[in-house]
């Protein structure tokens, strides 16, 4: 090849390289135009393209992609610091997210470009209201005024800042504090739909299920949160606290089944001490503890436990029954009848309750009759000889002629002593009395009928004759009116 041919070839390569470089530059430029067309168009004053930009921002906000909307708006402002609408839109998004300081700055940027704009001034005022309301809501939450705090969140903060995560989490905390667990589950569920890995929402929703005693679901929420952050202190505390509660509760139940009632009492008390506010679970612990204490004969302690259960759930029939049994142990017959009658009315088909009520009514009836053993000062196991001896002693002690100064009291005491002796000296009557059966004629205090008793001993003879009571009067001389006393 000669020198001229070589030169021609080289020129061709150079031209092709130059053309190739020009093609690459045009391709890159075309891509930039394609990607940045809305921004460039807005900067060039082409309203149609600016409209497309803001339409895209609106769509992002509609599907709650606030980060994408802010990215577009930030890019627009960076490309053209005089694009007022971008400042306004960005301020609005930031306000909805309750990023108040950034939002206020964007509103002020807009107002510098559009002084006196009423819409911007109105939204800036709303921003200040929402910001103040959120601060107030937290203060009320800390002070324990949960109802008022919820009002500030619902009626102000979430009206002007509907995408405010801090306010939504605070609302769930307030619902938990007010024990509205179903609403807390619903609200936290909405948060998890937006972000399924939100640790705070997982924790709060788990707590709501926990306080409803839906422990399996609560554990799943805590576990998911701990998988995302194994060192999250609140999630760890909630998870291991629940595991400990379940362990202690099961230990108590196992000891009951094994007949180790005293150990069960300690386990139940230990489980109750772990979380006194866990009412949905504690109501069953209090009831189970009451049953065990009744079995142990600790009536007073059992009443306290059943009271706790009924304070949580006043319609708990089993707690009424157990408290009735506990009151029988403490000889509170009226209280026992009241509790068992209430339980029987609520569960009329339960024969066990009806049997318990009959026992209580019988005990009440027996408690209201006179205690003849007590009147004679003898025990229920006393022999007939001991009963007669006590009777002789009391009859002489309360002889009306020996109690001239307190004759009326002596006559009353003497009647009681005679009536007691009439029942307890008769084997048939005594047996019926001990069984709690009615006795039509129980001596002087039971409606009349005659009574005559002679017995002697020690060189003395005593004769007591009762016929129809002591009609009309006193014990003068030979005790007129059918009463005779000789010695």
Automatic annotation (TrEMBL):
Domain J as annotated: residue spans: 371-437
| Segments crossing the lipid bilayer | 17-36
Chief location category: endoplasmic reticulum
SMART domains associated with the record: DnaJ, TPR
Sorted UniProt keywords:
Endoplasmic reticulum, Membrane, Repeat, Signal, TPR repeat, Transmembrane, Transmembrane helix
Q: Does the keyword Cell membrane apply?
A: no
**What cellular-component terms does GO give this entry?**
endoplasmic reticulum lumen
Locations listed in the record:
Endoplasmic reticulum lumen
Task: Please report the residue spans annotated as repeat (TPR).
Answer: 84-117, 199-232
In its UniProt entry, what is this protein called?
A: DnaJ-like protein
Organism, scientific name: Betula luminifera
